[in-house]
Design a protein that fits this description.
Blueprint (H helix, E strand, L loop, with lengths): L7 H4 L4 H11 L13 E6 L11 H14 L3 E6 L16 H14 L4 E6 L4 H10 L5 E5 L6 E3 L2 E3 L3 H11 L5 H11 L11 H11 L15 H20 L9 H14 L4 H13 L28 H7 L1 H8 L44 E5 L2 E7 L10 E9 L2 H7 L12 E4 L20 H4 L8 E3 L11 E6 L16 E5 L4 E4 L3 H10 L10 H9 L26
């Protein structure tokens, strides 16, 4: 017996309620046959002109619709909150959970049987998946895809990664401001997300490695016609998924999360993937913890892309993309279901690598054991993370005196002081940038190197904060220190001159201050006054979890798959 369509509760009734639901939809020109019981497919679109990364999604939505109609479904596109990573203040991460709420409630409230998530910019993909997981319909992802390679004076340049390098070069007097401004126009040459392995391209790659999209979703450029074809095929597949009752929870298993962690290590993916995977797992009921990130610690770096390497996403796509990486990881991948209804190993069938300088073999990697490392100690009781593939090897084992910036304003006001008392051994510490403190946990953890050191040729030093860093950034940066300073974590007690020891190999982050001194400091400590006292930001600060729990809102963890039965008319 075929399972009753969810949409039948809206469009299948022969009464006043059914009349209203169908009649108002017909004002868009849909014929009677659109309401004949076929699957209704929601296309959840984060297109916005204020989210340049997602500016191509209007076109991709049309491709999805073609595939849905072809397969006998009824496609209906709807908008949700769009989060422009490069455009929003104080940080797009503040609003990831708001997007998740929007997606969840739209999916629950409307008469759809399955959903296609169209996203790409850093927070849109995880926010959409969090919301969809809390309703648990058949779900599949189409990412917006990366921009074409940036170009500047005959060389490829990468969004984010080269911005940081150029900025430091200007501060050091090695690049003119005129040249810096000239590079701006060549950086972003097409629709799409960052063409480095930043958070956006990391998440689209992980979505593929988790089996949440069709193969090749992770790397195909936004403007490549094959991405439009992928959208069309996705539209066909989501109709089949509804027929098969292939719910999101049947794909989002612990095994798929473990595959994401392995793939993140292999591609040199963003540290931001950690908070997103933890949050998505919390929605679907998978017991994923920060310590599970260590599953990928011994996986080598296989993809030679910025910021961990030299190439860009366009090169990665042409070299074979995620399927070629999965082929290299075959002996390590967990058995896991996918949106194809087949094991993830199917994504690597027939995959080839066409450029071994871009995608390395497992036994000849870019770097060995390059996965994210989890750090613990009296400075981070609930954990912190560091990305070895983007760090200076010698600094991953380091001890030095702290120079503390109490907040972002302190950092901006003082980091370029000519008399700043720092040396290359100094460990920069930034407080007040966690989920509650900023609020929203911004990408400021990769603090600029103090000007006095930049002018001496220093390009990396150990930095520690409760914030995040852009997936396009690089350096020996300790992030996501939990609990954060604003929540009373030990980070709040650090003073300039205190010695800190970092050992990535041992997974340690230690504040070398006696316990009795820390106790005295804690007795005198008081949190900063909240920066917001109304609206969503107030709700966020009151309910956000710490980074080691995914920074979701406490009342959103889990799911509610019940059908809404009450009518509005």
């Amino acid at each position: 017996m075929t399972k009753p369509r969810r949409s039948a509760n809206w469009y299948g009734k022969l009464d006043k309620d059914g009349f209203i639901h169908r009649s108002w939809m017909k004002n868009q020109g849909f014929p009677d046959q659109a309401f004949d019981g076929r699957p209704v497919i929601g296309i959840c679109n984060t297109w916005s002109e204020l989210t340049p990364c997602n500016s191509g999604l209007r076109t991709l939505a049309e491709g999805v619709k073609r595939g849905v109609w072809e397969a006998g479904g009824f496609p209906v596109e709807f908008p949700v909150t769009s989060l422009g990573e490069t455009q929003m203040k104080p940080t797009a991460m503040l609003f990831r959970n708001l997007l998740a709420m929007d997606v969840e409630e739209c999916i629950r409230a409307y008469g759809i049987d399955g959903v296609v998530l169209l996203g790409g910019c850093d927070k849109t993909t995880p926010g959409q998946l969090m919301g969809a997981a809390s309703v648990d319909l058949p779900t599949i992802v189409v990412s917006s895809g990366p921009m074409l390679n940036g170009k500047f004076r005959g060389h490829d340049i990468g969004s984010g990664t080269d911005v940081w390098k150029f900025s430091e070069a200007v501060r050091a007097g090695e690049m003119t401001l005129q040249d810096f401004m000239a590079a701006e126009s060549g950086m972003s040459r097409s629709a799409g997300v960052c063409m480095t392995m930043g958070t956006a391209s990391t998440m689209s790659s992980l979505v593929e490695a988790m089996g949440l999209s069709l193969p090749t979703n992770g790397a195909l450029p936004a403007v490549d016609a094959r991405r439009m074809a992928l959208a069309h095929l996705t539209g066909k597949r989501i109709v089949e998924m509804v027929e098969e009752d292939l719910l999101l929870s049947k794909v989002l298993t612990r095994a798929s999360f473990e595959n994401a962690i392995l793939a993140n290590a292999a591609v040199g993916g963003s540290t931001n993937a950690v908070v997103h995977l933890l949050a998505i797992a919390g929605r679907v009921g998978v017991n994923l913890t920060l310590d599970d990130i260590e599953i990928g610690a011994e996986i080598p770096l296989l993809v030679n892309c910025m910021p961990s390497g030299k190439y860009l996403m366009e090169d990665f796509a042409y070299a074979g993309g995620v399927p070629a990486v999965l082929a290299e990881l075959k002996g390590h991948l967990r058995k896991a279901n996918t949106v194809l209804g087949r094991d993830i190993s199917a994504y690597a069938e027939g995959a080839e690598c066409f450029n071994r300088d871009v995608i390395h073999a497992f036994d000849a990697p870019v770097k060995p054991a390059a996965g994210l490392r989890v750090l613990r100690g009296n400075l981070a009781p609930d954990g912190a993370i560091v990305k070895p593939s983007a760090a200076t090897d010698a600094l991953l084992e380091h001890e030095g005196p702290a120079h503390v910036f109490e907040n972002i304003e302190d950092l901006k006001a003082n980091v370029d002081r000519d008399d700043l008392p720092v040396t290359p051994d100094t460990i920069l510490v930034l407080k007040g940038c966690g989920p509650k403190g900023y609020p929203g946990m911004p990408e400021v953890g990769n603090m600029p190197i103090p000007k006095v050191l930049v002018q001496q040729g220093v390009r990396d030093m150990v930095r520690v904060s409760d914030g995040r860093m852009s997936g396009t950034a690089y350096g020996t940066v300790v992030l996501h220190v939990s609990p954060e300073a604003q929540a009373g974590g030990p980070l709040a007690l650090v003073k300039t001159g205190d010695r800190i020891r970092l050992s990535a190999s041992r997974g340690e982050l230690t504040l070398l201050v006696p316990d009795d001194e820390l106790a005295a400091r804690r007795a005198a400590w008081r949190p900063d006054a909240p920066r917001y006292d109304r609206g969503y930001a107030r709700l966020y600060v009151d309910h956000v979890l710490q980074a080691d729990k995914g920074a979701d809102l406490d009342f959103l963890v889990g799911k509610d798959t019940r059908l809404v039965t009450r009518e509005s008319h």
